[in-house]
Amino acid sequence: MKQNLYNYILGIADNSLILGQRLGELTGHGPSLETDIACTNISLDLFGQVRSYFQYAAKIAGDDRTEDDIAMLRKEREYVNVLLVEQPNTNFAYTMARQFLFDVYHLLFLQELEKSKDLTLSAIATKSIKEVSYHERFSGDWIKRLGDGTEESKTKMQDAIDGLWTYTDELFHQTEADKAMVAEGIGVDVTKLKETYYKKVNEILEEATLEIPESKWFQKGGKEGVHTEHLGYLLAELQYMQRAYPNMEW
Amino acid sequence: MSDKKNWPLWEIFVRSKNGLEHRHFGSLHAADAEMALENARDVYTRRNEGVSIWVVESKNITASNPEHNGEMFEPAQDKVYRHPTFYDLPDEVKHM
Amino acid sequence: MSEEQIKNLEAQFEARIARDEKIEPKDWMPEKYRKTHIRQMSQHAHSEIVGMLPEGNWITRAPSLRRKVALLAKVQDEAGHGLYLYSACETLGISRDELYEQLHSGKAKYSSIFNYPTVTWADMGAVGWLVDGAAIINQVPLCNTSYGPYARAMVRVCKEESFHQRQGFEIMMKLANGTPEQKELAQDALNRWWWPSLMMLGPTDAESIHTEQSMKWKLKRKSNDDLRQQFIDQTVPQAELIGLTIPDPDLKWNDERQSYDFGAIDWDEFWQVVKGHGPMNKERMKARVGAWEEGEWVRDAAMAHAEKKQARKQKQAI
Questions:
Q1: Where do the domains of chain B lie, and which CATH numbers do they carry?
Q2: How far apart (Å, rounded) are the C-alpha atoms in residues B53 and B23?
Q3: Quick check: A95 and A135 in contact, CB under 8 A?
Q4: Are B28 and C87 within 8 A, CB to CB?
Q5: What is the pLDDT of residue C180?
Q6: CA distance A154 to A144
Q7: Chain C closest CA to B87's CA: distance in Å?
Q8: Each residue of A127-185: pLDDT tens digit?
Q9: How many CB pairs under 8 A join A and C?
Q10: Which residue in B has a C-alpha nearest to residue A39's C-alpha?
Q11: For A116, A202, B1, B43, which has the most beta carbons within 10 A of its beta carbon?
């Protein structure tokens, strides 16, 4: 099996999986019915992407593993999503800030992935770009609303941006699989996205009258499977059925 | 809080496909027009129902009063000469 | 208006409905019509959004990605349905906030079936199959109800609802055809949801208070007992098809009536749950009130932002 390609796909898909799961927690608990529906839509887009990626990964693996095995039957250290997406829904400001900080990256990433020599990945990227462009606009609008809303919302949004900022740098770290795939013309060189990313993010933050955090200390580890404590609980729910009732079809 | 302002109500019009007119689909709440458009997209076109959306804040719609329906609409009822069937033509004229 | 004038208007109004004409928001209507509609539509809307909770409970734990997206989409639809119905209600001059207030204070009711817990994954199957099944039986006739906005909302709801029941039945079918452990899950869920589903169609005709007036206004087309019989007759063969047993020893086909006879329903339990003593009443309200209160600063901020933006636009125009 093409191990590097397989690992590379997990690196992309795990982000959508974990973020989709986080958004799914909120269904039924949103600040308004309309917002609830919108966040669920984003979650559905992300899970749709996850399925495309994992179905492809399962094919590459070439054994009898399924998309669900890949999604739900790995151990904590085998999930390679970035730390950002696993952060909890502390409040709606955190949820939107997490979304926004990921969306800006996600869109830049997909626009490059579309050029991949791997036609399946390129096709998934083409489809996802439309979805993620919308996500970015949606979350960006909320950053502006909450940043430039009331005093209370500004404080909360600033707090969320400050709290999550430390997880942004990891988005641009390269794994071994990354390097190998970039060399083959399949993968995206994420280091090259960094400048544009912070430029776009900072523009929106400024428009939202928020302070751009000055912290230069960044957390990392997600891409190597070393996560924050939050992930274990998320996985406990995600995997519950597959663990409690192994080897069954649903 | 007494000065509480709730998200206003918006009326949503959707064009199902090009060639068709926008049709009233329903309403929803949103803080501003952009949000109304976004919400309308997720609420009313989740199943591929539209290619274009109009949103209008409900308070900006002026509606005719049903109590005036008599004077508004009934005078049009007997103006049969506005309809093609009012005019007698010989059967030999097939398409007109 | 004199009493006689009102009587006259009422007679005309009833005649319009009898002729199958639709009533639209700005039309004159008797106060009782308005109130009854607000009550029924809002109750219906509340049921949709409270109904999101027992199913939302399993979104993060759905056993496969396919099941997860289906469940997400279903619960999302319920939010949509609540929204359509609240909007229909608002055409009668009451705001969504007021309606929420009625729900949160316990003044307004919602379908009491949602006060039962969803304890296993099989409950997602049972709820879709039975609860949505019973709901559809109730809802389809409402597509033709006399109040235009309600009828239009129901057309949309029914169209979208059609995948919900199939989604639930598919879950049950898969379980029933699965391992013995899975089949047990399915049977257990059926055992727990069967009787509450029958109760969901409302008290027996003898005890139902609003029926006659509601029939006239086409808010109701069939009696509760008739709906219940219809539900049982259509569901029993479905259970048989997938090899599950309806938990009613008195259930028997009656050749003469061409319908199933069934056992006595525990109405005491029904009224207890309606009165707030169901297993989940408090949690459901806590979740709704919690979401609303925690969302307040978000809604306020969005409003404040919209006003600032508007003000900036106006300033620019000058």
A1: 2-61 (3.10.20.520)
A2: 9
A3: no
A4: yes
A5: 97
A6: 9
A7: 32
A8: 999 999 999 999 999 999 999 999 999 999 999 999 999 999 999 999 999 999 999 99
A9: 138
A10: B42
A11: B43
Quote the CA–CA distance of C190 and C168 in Å, as a whole number.
Answer: 12
Pairing of strands B52-57, C259-261: unpaired
User: Considering only CA atoms, which of C144, C124, C147, C299 is closest in space to residue C221?
Assistant: C144
Q: What pLDDT, on a 0 to 100 scale, did the predictor assign at position B3?
A: 54
- Average pLDDT along chain B: 91
pLDDT at A217: 92
- Cα B80 to Cα B17, B76, B84, distances in angstroms: 34, 8, 9
Contact of A68 with A47, CB cutoff 8 Å: no
Q: How many CB pairs under 8 A join A and B?
A: 25
pLDDT tens per residue, range A27-38: 999 999 999 999
Domains and CATH numbers, chain A: 2-244 (1.20.1260.10)
What interface predicted TM-score (ipTM) does this complex get? 0.97
What is the pTM (predicted TM-score) of this model?
0.95
Q: What is the pLDDT of residue B1?
A: 40
For residue B43, give the nearest of A37, A137, A138 by CB distance: A37
Residue C147 backbone dihedrals phi, psi, to 5 degrees: -85, 115
- Side chain identity at residue A227, one-letter code: H
The low-confidence residues of chain C, meaning pLDDT below 70, are 210
- Cβ <8 Å between B31 and A41: no
The DSSP-derived string for A100-163 is HHHHHHHHHHHHHHTT-SSHHHHHHHHHHHHHHHHHHHHHHHHHHHHHTS-HHHHHHHHHHHHH
d(CA B43, CA B45): 6
Query: Quick one: tokens of A127?
Result: 């489809």
Assess A38–B contact: CB distance below 8 Å, yes or no: yes
Q: Can you tell me the distance from the alpha carbon of C103 to that of C120, in angstroms, rounded to the nearest whole number? A: 28
